[in-house]
Amino acid sequence: MIAGEQLLRLHDGKLIKDRRYHLRTYPNCFVAQELIDWLVSHKETPDRATAVCLLQHLMDHDIIHHCDKRPVIKDAKLLYRFRKDDGTFPFNTEVKVFIWGQRLYGLIGDKNSILKLREEHGVAYQRSFPGCQLIDWLLQNGEAESRRRGLELCRALQEHGIIQHAKKHNFFDSGLLYQFCINFRRRRRLSELLNEGEQDVDEGVAVWTQEDNHPESPFVLRKSGPQGGNGAFLSLRRTFTCEELLAPGSPFIKKVLTVMGDVLGWGFVVRGQAPCYVQAVDPGSPAAAAGVKVRQFVCQVNGQCVLYLDYRTVSRMVMTGTRTVVLDLMEPLE
């Protein structure tokens, strides 16, 4: 999304314009080869291959498309168009939350901003804000009609990676500190945005063991964050299907755990696209006390099958349900 927004300024550089091809006029188009020339010459990408990857990423996420519906980007004299320019951009929930979050960041960052240097548990956080103050701001500025609605909007921002708590707690109408994950005002090279999109992971606390790097393990341990921090997260070494998890004789054991949430939430992070898995567990959280561990796949939440749901849907089910969550998990055999 950010890469697409930055590239829309190409309207000013006359790369996007009406073009004729085979006696037909295509409005608001760009030539792939010309755009790749521009990306390399303006040092947005280091080489043409990276530029092609960036544009393919935009196509895969419905930011741009070929005028005659070709499925791939080619470094050639082919016509493509931004979906915003022809009204075909899919304004789904994720896009709407992103656009609203971007606008909100601009409004909050003006005079009398609630984004300030604050301290929580002895740690200072730049440009942070208490959850209750953000909801107050939404109410005062007509962005939400009630505190409940404000809480729902803030949780949507957190769910879609716009804001976060330093320790990855869920969003609450309280004095807990949160920060925007994205500085919408800082312009970055487009290749940098491509790398961020490929990571797409949390940099939170994770509990792991040496077995996680075993060649037969379905998970692989990686250092989190491009700055080389000390954190770690777990991601899948390969994709597992629901059928593999449920097959007779599969190397998994089923566990049913009850997690009693506290004022800070439940204390675990799920990731994955059907089935999802536990990526991180806060060592001092209710989830850890109940026996939730990384490397467990989530089968049911409060009796409802979630094997075929992605992590965003599963997270929403937990966050909008009761404080007590019953989880059916599949844990790899040691």
UniProtKB/TrEMBL annotation:
<dbReference type="GO" id="GO:0005096">
    <property type="term" value="F:GTPase activator activity"/>
</dbReference>
<dbReference type="GO" id="GO:0005085">
    <property type="term" value="F:guanyl-nucleotide exchange factor activity"/>
</dbReference>
<dbReference type="InterPro" id="IPR001478">
    <property type="entry name" value="PDZ"/>
</dbReference>
<dbReference type="GO" id="GO:0023051">
    <property type="term" value="P:regulation of signaling"/>
</dbReference>
<dbReference type="InterPro" id="IPR000591">
    <property type="entry name" value="DEP_dom"/>
</dbReference>
<feature type="domain" description="DEP">
    <location>
        <begin position="109"/>
        <end position="182"/>
    </location>
</feature>
<dbReference type="InterPro" id="IPR036388">
    <property type="entry name" value="WH-like_DNA-bd_sf"/>
</dbReference>
<dbReference type="Pfam" id="PF17820">
    <property type="entry name" value="PDZ_6"/>
</dbReference>
<dbReference type="Pfam" id="PF00610">
    <property type="entry name" value="DEP"/>
</dbReference>
<dbReference type="InterPro" id="IPR041489">
    <property type="entry name" value="PDZ_6"/>
</dbReference>
<dbReference type="GO" id="GO:0005886">
    <property type="term" value="C:plasma membrane"/>
</dbReference>
<dbReference type="InterPro" id="IPR036034">
    <property type="entry name" value="PDZ_sf"/>
</dbReference>
<feature type="domain" description="DEP">
    <location>
        <begin position="10"/>
        <end position="84"/>
    </location>
</feature>
<dbReference type="GO" id="GO:0007186">
    <property type="term" value="P:G protein-coupled receptor signaling pathway"/>
</dbReference>
<dbReference type="InterPro" id="IPR051832">
    <property type="entry name" value="mTOR-Rac_regulators"/>
</dbReference>
<dbReference type="InterPro" id="IPR036390">
    <property type="entry name" value="WH_DNA-bd_sf"/>
</dbReference>
<dbReference type="GO" id="GO:0035556">
    <property type="term" value="P:intracellular signal transduction"/>
</dbReference>
<protein>
    <recommendedName>
        <fullName>DEP domain-containing protein</fullName>
    </recommendedName>
</protein>
